Amino acid sequence: MVKLNNRKLKVILENTEQVINDLEFDLDQYEQLEGRKKEMCSRAIRNDIADIFKNLEDYLALVLKKIGVCVSDRSFRECINLALEKKLLHEGFGKYIVDKIKIRNFFSHRYNYPKTEELIKLYKGHEEVFKFHIDFMKELSNEISRKEDIDIF
To answer: Domain of life, per the record (predicted)?
Structure first.
């Protein structure tokens, strides 16, 4: 039987929820600001999006480790696809985010960041996909809480 560290999962879940809340706040502010303040808000949006990807990387490392997969040996795309295959990632979120890997790579490799408008499009109009991911992690955490050991795979 495989045991998943629910404390780590809850931390990733809380961090993801906080980042989404911060992103929504920053997006609301961005529309109302001008000049230097808008530029600073743009940086906050960039950081929020980077944190979403970082939290996803942490989540994938946690769940894939439990099936014997070392994420450092695989590309981010491979990790997402494997998590989808093993039903360890919400299908709608996984399929959406796998197409956005190019944006994640900008942050990871620190080259030519996308424009703020491109980052806004990543989230705006797709809020429910991110909610699906959060709900999926909550369900997994709740299932683990109900059982001492859980065979999730």
So the answer is: Bacteria
Structure-block tokens of residue 13: 């879940």
Contact 82, 94 (CB under 8 A): no
The answer to whether residue 153 sits within a structural domain is no
Alpha carbon 32 to its chain centroid, in Å, reads: 27
> Does any domain span residue 152?
no
CATH number for the domain spanning 98: value is 1.20.120
CB proximity list for 96: less than 8 A, separation 6 or greater: 126, 129
Summarised one tens digit per residue, pLDDT across range 41-99 is: 999 999 999 999 999 999 999 999 989 999 999 999 999 999 999 999 999 999 999 99
Model pTM score: 0.89
| Measured CA angle at 12 (ends 10, 15), to 5 deg | 105
Whether residue 149 is contained in a domain is answered as: no
User: Domain containing 125: what range?
Assistant: 6-144
How far apart CA 108 and CA 91 sit, in angstroms, is 24
Overall domain count for the chain: 1
Residue 151 has pLDDT above 70, yes or no: no
